[in-house]
Amino acid sequence: MAAGSRRRPLSEIRIPVGEDALKLTGTLGEFTDVKRLPAMEAAVLRKPKGIDDAGAVRERLYAWVRQQGYAAADACCEVFLSHSAAGDYSEMETEIFVPVEKVASGQD
Q1: What is the per-residue DSSP string for 20-89?
Q2: 92 CB contacts (<8 Å, ≥6 apart)?
Q3: What angle is formed at CA 104 by the lines to CA 98 and CA 108, rounded to 5 degrees?
Q4: pLDDT digits (tens, 9 = 90+) for 7-65
Q5: What is the C-alpha to C-alpha distance for residues 54 and 90, in angstroms, rounded to an integer?
Q6: 100 SS3 class
Q7: What per-residue confidence (pLDDT) applies to 105?
């Protein structure tokens, strides 16, 4: 790694926490933090327990976004609403968020 470069995680996982957790901001280590997310317009699809292929769920969500005349404004993120003691993704309920923006219709 080049001197002065900062390591970045490959993905971001978001877990809803209470307002009190904000006091931990900046204290949890290199790859863990608590932050307030900006307001955004987003398409959201809930992945129920029992599905182990998030890629297929994301593809379905992105297709719906395009069909509605929107485009992704940023990378998607996944919010975990439940957990699995064994770490089994298929047993976790999540919401997949895609920040969106309306595509110009070209009829202005």
Answers
A1: GGGGGTT-S-TT----PPPP--EEEEEE-TT---HHHHHHHHHHHHHHTTEEESS--EEEESS--TT--G
A2: 49, 80, 81, 82, 83, 84
A3: 160
A4: 555 556 677 777 888 788 888 777 777 777 778 899 999 988 888 888 888 899 999 99
A5: 9
A6: strand
A7: 74
Q: Please report where in the chains the tokens 């006091």 appear, as a residue.
A: 23
Tokens (6 digits) for 43: 């398409």
Interatomic CA distance for residues 100 and 33, integer angstroms: 24
Question: What pLDDT digit, counting tens, does each position of 68-89 carry?
Answer: 999 999 888 888 888 888 888 8
Rounded CA gap, 49 and 92, in Å? Answer: 5
> What sign results for the dihedral spanned by CA atoms 48, 88, 9, 27?
positive
pTM of the model: 0.65
